[in-house]
Design brief:
The chain is of the alpha/beta class. Helices cover 40% and strands 20% of the residues. It has a five-stranded parallel beta sheet, with helices on both faces. Helix 2 links the parallel strand 2 and strand 3. Helix 3 crosses helix 4.
């Protein structure tokens, strides 16, 4: 790299990879390294992280609580869009990356840093998500991705490197799988999960009970929405973080939200992932139910027609792309009328809609009823409607 690097902001967790990266960056570039840790609800122990970063050579450590922003601006946006990648994946990891990278760039600008660095590998999606965000927000930033350039081949090399330099790490052997956790979900990939024929072992799951061990008693809850965003459970209002945390627990107790998916990574390969997303699984079912009575038919279909593009944009890392700004604006406009309550039954991995109501409901019982509709609908009108629809079909076979 020809450009002189004086200061770099490293996305740092204190784990094996980023601990090695911190020292490697200093040795390779002779630069100051500022460490940055984003709390998006991963549940990792943050105490002692500052001391470890400084002892390994960092000039300082930023620990940023991004949980509220993550849920309010990213997770709720995906709920409003009913976003699913390849029809199954609720995008938990994909949604966390832009909020993490956004704050990293802000810190780089505050620090006057020349570069940012991340711990994503050269095989995965996260490198793309991080770097597209970096370049969108600061086009002249230099990006360092050590896994694409350093000499280490795997975790054994990193363990040896850290041992040589006296860097304390808890990893001593290859984990049987890799895990990513935030407030929205947990994902598991690699290792013992790489054979798509092998079922995931039950002991890997942290958020959800198996349906077999879930409660034998169904639970009914009512979720309330305002402009497409969840605001209350059973009439009790919660902030975004507390609501999702509570719903994750409730869903987990009933074995809700497990997904086993072979997905197409942006870089071209197929990858098998196991996901636990209990809270948002419940929310998306409820949200769709509320939309069924509040959205105009063609508005709903237009929004759904953009769903694939929306989910792919999130998965591929284009959160800050101009076309995605337009997509978000359109989705938000559709949600103005998505207000009301949905009653759900949770049982053994299933989410069943038991009722929905809204002050903006387009459902009119007096129109749809099979009983006397008191003139609300003239059934004779259907004859002309059908004949007009049939005209082109009749013309094909007319003499």
């Amino acid at each position: 790299m020809s450009k002189k690097i004086n200061k770099v902001v490293l996305a740092y967790s204190g784990g094996l990879d980023t601990s090695a990266m911190l020292l490697w960056l200093k040795e390779t570039y002779g630069c100051e390294v500022v460490c940055y840790c984003a709390d998006v609800g991963q549940g990792e122990e943050l105490s002692g992280l500052n001391e470890k970063a400084l002892a390994t050579g960092a000039s300082k450590l930023y620990v940023e609580d991004l949980r509220d922003e993550f849920v309010r601006d990213f997770v709720w946006m995906a709920v409003k869009a009913n976003a699913l990648y390849e029809g199954v994946y609720l995008l938990g990891t994909s949604l966390a990356r832009p909020v993490i990278a956004k704050r990293q760039i802000e810190i780089a600008q505050m620090e006057g840093a020349d570069a940012v660095a991340h711990g994503a590998t050269g095989k995965g999606n996260d490198q793309v998500r991080f770097e597209l965000t970096y370049y969108s927000l600061k086009p002249d930033i230099t990006v360092i991705a050590p896994w694409r350039s350093w000499e280490f081949k795997g975790r054994a090399d990193l363990i040896a490197y850290c041992a040589k330099h006296g860097i304390p790490v808890t990893a001593t052997a290859e984990k049987p799988y890799s895990m990513d956790r935030n407030l929205m979900h947990i994902s598991y990939e690699g290792g013992i999960l790489e054979n798509p024929w092998s079922a995931p072992p039950e002991n890997i799951f942290l958020l959800t009970k198996s349906p077999e061990k879930a409660s034998d008693t169904a639970q009914e809850i009512t979720l309330s929405f305002e402009k497409g965003e969840p605001v209350a459970i059973d009439g009790v209002k919660y902030g975004a973080v507390d609501l999702l945390t509570k719903l994750n627990y409730i869903g987990g107790e009933h074995g809700i939200g497990r997904v086993d998916l072979v997905e197409n990574r942006f870089v071209g390969m197929k990858s098998r992932g196991i996901y636990e997303t209990p809270g948002v699984t419940i929310l998306q079912t409820a949200h769709r139910a509320l939309e069924s009575i509040t959205l105009d038919r063609e508005v709903g279909r237009l929004r759904d027609s953009l769903g694939t593009k929306f989910a792919e944009s999130v998965y591929y890392g284009f959160w800050f792309a101009p076309e995605f700004e337009i997509l978000k604006s359109m989705v938000n406009q559709t949600q103005e009328v998505v207000n009301g309550d949905v009653r759900l039954k949770l049982y053994k991995g299933n989410v069943t809609v038991n009722g929905r109501r809204s002050p903006n409901s387009l459902y009119r019982e007096r129109v749809v009823t099979f009983e006397d509709d008191a003139g609300a609908y003239d059934q004779h009108d259907a004859e002309g409607f059908i004949k007009l629809q049939a005209l082109r079909l009749r013309l094909r076979n007319m003499e």
